[in-house]
Each structure stands twice: as structure tokens, then as C-alpha cells.
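A reminder from the course coordinator: this example appears on the midterm review sheet, so study it carefully.

Given structure:
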């Protein structure tokens, strides 16, 4: 029996035999084609169209955020710029396979250099290229294995198209050798409640058929476990399954300290599932869905309809709406189409909205009108809070809060996503009604590591003590001024890290709805004093991995330290 570590997603535990993802197809030869360019072009057009339709069909079947990702991949497959690049190579006498391989590789390099959202799309581009080449060769595309029995999937990482349609009756658990807690695979695994350990480099040597235990709570993979270890793991899995069917209760610590558990939502249609899973409101409603697929900004009426649907789904509950967070990884031609060498540090978030203030004013108008339209809800009106993204100065805070007040928004706050706003939290919260910490971007900017770039994924870990210190600054400022401090990044979905964040002063936690049950259960095992002690242990560490271990050890010692 041996063990190795990675980053666990959630609290689940699973066991079973390993089945590995197939290796990528070998690169095609650069030998000249024996067919005419016209014949090769026809072959490529058919293959690209078939792959695009397959991706769209997978997206429609998967639904949710997976559908958006797969539809984006389908559009990428038929991108006119890529088509031109492929055609150039075909006219030079290359085979369809080589033309696709070389054109996509060239385009991939360009996207990688841009970083941000487009850098992330580079990895998706590889998957599209593999599928097109496989179609041209008449062979199955590399993808999820089918050994004929349930298995633990081991992969370098997963393409969105594969993750979206994992057969959860067959895939018992997931181990990846790359990626971190905020990687695309980790987010989708959490959304689908898949027991997963990501970033476990040692898994690359696991042969097919090896029995493993995947312990997400501990972030440990046990290889060739004993019968007793298998029994204990199964007992834990059974207990967790029973706990998940227990009646829903408000989020709270063991001593009764309330910690409201809220949902992160991207569209109003996700509200029903969030309520069913126990969300006590919405801690982050992303309004980008109204803007990203449009060539022009949506009208006030279109926005009002969406916001009214959202507020109506949460009568009497808090609903925190983030105004448009665009720019950088989410470029919009009608907001900012200027080329920027480093868009992550450019005109994004509130900066972009101030440069196109009419868009911000229309959004605030629509939110205020939706709030007024739902005031007569017989079950009670939703409690609308509105916040600005990427606030980095006190002056920006004053600007946004004053503008929101002009439109009748009663509760106006800011996102804390850059170190400057965390370090000046006491001054920022003197003007804002609340702060919400976006741990994904806060980690990115604190560690100077693009959160969408795989080569620096190891730095993108919210457990890093530098990030936790900044969270503590905001928590302390909120406590001193009597202002709420929420967490709405992926960090809130990590059950033990959620305890640490509460210990650092967070008053609410917002996450993907599927993470609510695990976080609720973990909070109930610790008092506020425990949470503070566990947080101090993590803060005393030198890096993310040791902070996580220190917190685990402090949590395990809880009973020994209590009278």
C-alpha cells in the first residue's frame, strides 16, 4: 500500500480499479498529399462540421455551464480565421490531417501568448484539433475509456467535452496529474459532485486495473489498499450518502454561530436547483450571460426581465448581483475593443464600466426596476444587494456607491479581488455597505499567476498564506465597522478552507450549489473558536500545501484542545 497527494475536491471518498485516458493521437506526417487540394478541403470541411455538431449535441445533453463551454468549442472549430489558416496549408499540397494539426498548433501559440480567457481556450483548441484529426483518420477520438465496468478515471487533465458527459454510473472517481483547485476540471468535478483529487503528479505511473481509494477530503490517493482500508472507505462513503439526505438546515457552526450559505449563479434558470440544494440566497449573480453572446449591450427591458426572474426565485432572501465584469478574459466589442498587451491588468471590471458609463447606468436602472417590480411578492421581496467588480481604490468605491444610490439601490458594495482593496479594506468599507472577496482573482493577483494558465496552476491556490492574510485584513475591517464580508470565489466550496475563511472573519460563504452540503456538514463540526484556531495554524505556514496540512492537523486536534 502506498499513498500520494493532490488537491481534493469536496469531501467524498471513492474506490475502484484505475482506467487511464487514452494518449493523444500521434502527430500526422508532413508528407505531401496524394489527393488534390479541393479533395482535401472537402474532407476537412466535412470533418470540422461533424465535430462542431457533435460538440453542440454534447452541450445540449449536458446543460448548465458545460453547454456554454462546448458551444464555445463548436464555434472555435468553425472559426473563419482558423479555416483560412487550414486552407492556406491545403493549397500548398498538405494533407488535411497535417493542415489541421499545424494550423491549430499555430493558433494555439497565439492564444497562449494572450493569456487570460483566450489562454484557457488554447487547451480547448487542442481537444478540437484531436477530434477533427481523428475524424479524418476514421478512428475514435481520444476520450473516456470504457473498460466494461465501473472505474476510477486517471488523466493528465480532462477536456470540457469529456467532463461534460462523464457517465457517473461508471466513473467512480477522478484523478488528474495536472490542474489545481480552481482549474476547469476541478470546477466541473465540483459541479457534478464527482469525487476527485487533482494535481496528483504521481498518478502518471498508475497502471490500468490498479485498485485505489480516492479520498477527496484528505487529498490522498491510496494505491493497493488493504481490505480494512477498503471497508473503512466504503463506510465513510455510506455515511456521507446518508448525511446528504438529512433535512436541510441554515448554515451554522457547532456553537450556533450563523454562517449563511449562498449560491453562485450565472443565469436565473439555476435558481430552482440552488434552492433545492439548500442555498439561503445568492452570494454572486454573474450578469455576464446577458452580454457575452451579444454584439451590442442588452436593453434595459431585457435586463429587467432576467433580474426580475432571479429576484422572484428568492423571496425574503439576500440576492447579491455583480454588475458586468468584462474586459481581460471576457472581452466585449461594445465595451472595450482596444488591444491591450496585458489585459488582466488593463481596462476591466469597474474600470471598463466607467469608460462606458451608459452601460453601467442602464444596468443599475434595470436592477432598480426589477427590485421595484418584485416588492409586492406575497412571500416577501428579495433583499437586493449590488456590487462592483475589480475595485482597487477608495475613490472607485465612493464613485460606485454614490452612483448606485442615485438609482435607488439601497445596499451597494464592492468585490475585493486585488491586494490594494484588501489592504485598504478599512477605508473602502467606510463607504461601501459590504465587501465580497473573489478568491480566484485575489489569488491570481497576489501570486502574480494567471488563473487560467496551466503552466502556473500550482501558484493558483487560495490556501496560500499571503492570500489568507489579505482575507484576514478584510475580515478584521468588516468586524470593526460592522460591515458584512462574504466569500464568493471557489475557495468557499472547499469545506475545510471554508472553516478557515470564517475564522478569518467571513460572515457568509457563496459557492456552486453542489458544494453546499459538504460545507454545511463541515461547519457544524467546528465552533467559532475552533475556526479561528485552525485559521491561525494555516496563517503560520509558509506555502499553500503546508497551510492546508496545518489546518488539517489543527482540525484533527480539535477535541484534544477543548476542555
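Designed residues:
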Amino acid at each position: 500500500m502506498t499513498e500520494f497527494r493532490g488537491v481534493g475536491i469536496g469531501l467524498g471518498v471513492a474506490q475502484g480499479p484505475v482506467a487511464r485516458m487514452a494518449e493523444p493521437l500521434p502527430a500526422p506526417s508532413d508528407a505531401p498529399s496524394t489527393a488534390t487540394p479541393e479533395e482535401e478541403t472537402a474532407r476537412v470541411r466535412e470533418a470540422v462540421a461533424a465535430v462542431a455538431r457533435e460538440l453542440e449535441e454534447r452541450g445540449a445533453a449536458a446543460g448548465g455551464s458545460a453547454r456554454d463551454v462546448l458551444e464555445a468549442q463548436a464555434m472555435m472549430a468553425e472559426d473563419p480565421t482558423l479555416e483560412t489558416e487550414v486552407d492556406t496549408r491545403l493549397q500548398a499540397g498538405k494533407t488535411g490531417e497535417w493542415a489541421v494539426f499545424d494550423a491549430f498548433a499555430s493558433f494555439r501559440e497565439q492564444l497562449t501568448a494572450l493569456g487570460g480567457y483566450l489562454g484557457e481556450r488554447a487547451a480547448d483548441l487542442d481537444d478540437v484539433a484531436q477530434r477533427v484529426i481523428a475524424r479524418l483518420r476514421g478512428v475514435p477520438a481520444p476520450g473516456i475509456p470504457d473498460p466494461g465496468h465501473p472505474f476510477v478515471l486517471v488523466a493528465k487533465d480532462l477536456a470540457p467535452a469529456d467532463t461534460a458527459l462523464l457517465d457517473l454510473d461508471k466513473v467512480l472517481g477522478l484523478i488528474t496529474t495536472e490542474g489545481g483547485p480552481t482549474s476547469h476540471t476541478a470546477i466541473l468535478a465540483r459541479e457534478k459532485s464527482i469525487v476527485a483529487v487533482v494535481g496528483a503528479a504521481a498518478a502518471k505511473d498508475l497502471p490500468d486495473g490498479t485498485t485505489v481509494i480516492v479520498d477527496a477530503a484528505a487529498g490522498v490517493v491510496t494505491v493497493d489498499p488493504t481490505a480494512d482500508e477498503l471497508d473503512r472507505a466504503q463506510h465513510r462513503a455510506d455515511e456521507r450518502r446518508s448525511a446528504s439526505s438529512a433535512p436541510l438546515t441554515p448554515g451554522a457552526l457547532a456553537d450556533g454561530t450563523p454562517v449563511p450559505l449562498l449560491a453562485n449563479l450565472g443565469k436565473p434558470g439555476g435558481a430552482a436547483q440552488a434552492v433545492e440544494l439548500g442555498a439561503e440566497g445568492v452570494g454572486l449573480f454573474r450578469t455576464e450571460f446577458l452580454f457575452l453572446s451579444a454584439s451590442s449591450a442588452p436593453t434595459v427591458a431585457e435586463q429587467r426581465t432576467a433580474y426580475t426572474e432571479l429576484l422572484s426565485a428568492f423571496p425574503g432572501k439576500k440576492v447579491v448581483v455583480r454588475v458586468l465584469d468584462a474586459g481581460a478574459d471576457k472581452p466585449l466589442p461594445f465595451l472595450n475593443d482596444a488591444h491591450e498587451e496585458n489585459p488582466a491588468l488593463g481596462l476591466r471590471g469597474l474600470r471598463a464600466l466607467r469608460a462606458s458609463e451608459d452601460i453601467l447606468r442602464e444596468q443599475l436602472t434595470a436592477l432598480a426596476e426589477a427590485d421595484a417590480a418584485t416588492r409586492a411578492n406575497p412571500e416577501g421581496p428579495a433583499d437586493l444587494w449590488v456590487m462592483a467588480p475589480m475595485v482597487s481604490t477608495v475613490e472607485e468605491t465612493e464613485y460606485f456607491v454614490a452612483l448606485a444610490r442615485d438609482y435607488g439601490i439601497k445596499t451597494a458594495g464592492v468585490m475585493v479581488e486585488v491586494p490594494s482593496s484588501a489592504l485598504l479594506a478599512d477605508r473602502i468599507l467606510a463607504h461601501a455597505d459590504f465587501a465580497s472577496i473573489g478568491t480566484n482573482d485575489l489569488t491570481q493577483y497576489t501570486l502574480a499567476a494567471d488563473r487560467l494558465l496551466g503552466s502556473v496552476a500550482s501558484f493558483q491556490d487560495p490556501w496560500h498564506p499571503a492570500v489568507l492574510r489579505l482575507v484576514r485584513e478584510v475580515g478584521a475591517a468588516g468586524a470593526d465597522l460592522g460591515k458584512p464580508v462574504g466569500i464568493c470565489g471557489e475557495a468557499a466550496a472547499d469545506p475545510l478552507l471554508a472553516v478557515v475563511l470564517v475564522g478569518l472573519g467571513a460572515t457568509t460563504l457563496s459557492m456552486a450549489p453542489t458544494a453546499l452540503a459538504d460545507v454545511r456538514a463541515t461547519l457544524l463540526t467546528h465552533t467559532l473558536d475552533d475556526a479561528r484556531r485552525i485559521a491561525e495554524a494555516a496563517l503560520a505556514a509558509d506555502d499553500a500545501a503546508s497551510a492546508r496540512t496545518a489546518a488539517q492537523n489543527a482540525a484533527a486536534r480539535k477535541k484534544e484542545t477543548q476542555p
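The chain has a mean pLDDT of 89. The radius of gyration is 24 Å.
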